[in-house]
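User: quick one, sequence for these tokens?
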């Protein structure tokens, strides 16, 4: 039995929109499999194949109770197969045996049922789950909380340690104390091309508060191997790429402004190849540039990266390389080259990753949402368009629940019609 996390595969059955954010494939045995797609509109679609019959439908649509889905990841389940852990943007997490009924509000379509993977409603003072990382090959899940704490679950349940795992043979425990972890980036090394080679082991790069980065293949010892051996602090890490063949790697922003990409999450800060088949490239030479990057954002449906520079310019890279444009992107898993996402005259006041895209506040008091990381200041890319959210804005933040997580906007004077700020 296996569960695989992929990105940006398709086509999605009975779906006319664009942009697949994540895909989880579940193999239940000979002739029986299921697949969940999280699309850019926040809807999760499923397809279930049983021998010669195929069934498809919607596993979850955004609701007023839990909002949109942030992540779907494969997780070990009640009977040794793989199911799906779902993280909602209010911090709620569920485990579904068959990848349907993701919020547990109804009946599962094919197998088993859906259970809460954390205590809900959350007990007072409980930190919010903000990231799920599938690790190892046995269905384990690392969960990062907004207080810097990380837990590991062998089966994708009891993520907050406030209950019990699905069976007595499974367990959960803390692997990083509060205030220690800044960010995590899932790593899926390239698939071996040689015949009979073992599948790559899912792992995770973890950025700690002291600026160090370590790689863990099992998710239980987050400091198993140093992923960066340089003397500079690592400021930020983001996942990049979405290829089944080339895997999912990591961009690392160093303290001097340089950004390095590693396809296997190891040897950050170097250029070349390593023993596991990973490739390391310099994604941006910030140390020798007058315009240094200040923030990286994983955006869009294809593992791309938005880079905000000191100048206020923003560039979108489809593969995490050539971050400032003007060169050649390194990897073929995402077609296209780096493009300008914003080079206007206004300054970027703040950018925040939100629901797979980017919210950008400009010095002209305008707030825009780009669902794919392009055209941050307005415009469209084919059928995907940037939306002007509000005008006359003095600030904004993402409200943390306890249920939905709306964008809260501050105005010096409310517009005449808040639902249509241009009115």
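Assistant:
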């Amino acid at each position: 039995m296996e569960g695989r996390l992929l990105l940006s595969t398709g086509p999605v059955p009975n779906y006319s929109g664009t942009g697949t954010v994540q895909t989880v494939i579940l193999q239940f045995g000979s002739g029986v499999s299921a697949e969940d797609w999280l699309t850019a509109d926040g809807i999760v679609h499923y397809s279930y194949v049983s021998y010669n019959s195929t069934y498809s439908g919607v596993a979850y649509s955004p609701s007023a109770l839990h909002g949109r889905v942030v992540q779907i990841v494969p997780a070990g389940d009640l009977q040794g197969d793989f199911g799906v852990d779902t993280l909602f943007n209010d911090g709620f997490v569920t485990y579904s045996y068959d990848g349907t009924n993701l919020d547990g509000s109804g009946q599962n379509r094919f197998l088993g049922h859906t259970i809460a993977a954390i205590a809900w409603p959350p007990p007072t003072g409980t930190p919010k789950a903000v990231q799920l990382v599938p690790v190892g090959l046995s269905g384990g899940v690392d969960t990062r909380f907004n207080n810097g704490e990380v837990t590991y679950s062998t089966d994708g349940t009891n993520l907050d340690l406030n209950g019990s795992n699905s069976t007595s043979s499974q367990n959960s425990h803390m692997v990083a104390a509060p205030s220690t972890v800044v960010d995590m980036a899932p790593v899926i090394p390239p698939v071996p091309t040689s015949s009979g080679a073992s599948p790559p082991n899912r792992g995770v790069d973890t950025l700690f508060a002291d600026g160090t980065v370590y790689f863990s293949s099992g998710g239980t010892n987050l400091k198993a191997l140093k992923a960066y051996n340089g003397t500079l602090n690592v400021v930020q890490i983001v996942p990049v790429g979405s290829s089944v063949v080339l895997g999912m790697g990591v961009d690392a922003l160093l303290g001097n402004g340089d950004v390095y990409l590693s396809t296997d999450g190891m040897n950050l800060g170097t250029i070349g190849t390593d023993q596991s088949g990973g490739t390391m490239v310099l994604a941006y030479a910030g140390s020798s540039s007058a315009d240094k990057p200040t923030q990286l954002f994983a955006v869009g449906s294809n593992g791309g990266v938005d880079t905000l520079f000191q100048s206020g310019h923003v560039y979108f890279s489809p593969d995490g390389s050539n971050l400032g444009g003007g060169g050649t992107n390194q990897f073929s898993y995402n077609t296209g080259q780096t493009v300008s996402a914003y080079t206007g005259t206004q300054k970027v006041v703040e950018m925040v990753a939100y629901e797979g895209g980017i919210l950008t506040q400009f010095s002209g008091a305008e707030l825009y949402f780009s669902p794919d990381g392009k055209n941050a200041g307005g415009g469209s890319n084919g059928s995907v368009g940037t939306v002007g959210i509000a005008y006359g804005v003095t600030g904004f933040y993402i409200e943390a629940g306890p249920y939905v997580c709306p964008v809260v906007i501050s105005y010096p004077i409310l517009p005449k019609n808040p639902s249509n700020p241009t009115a």
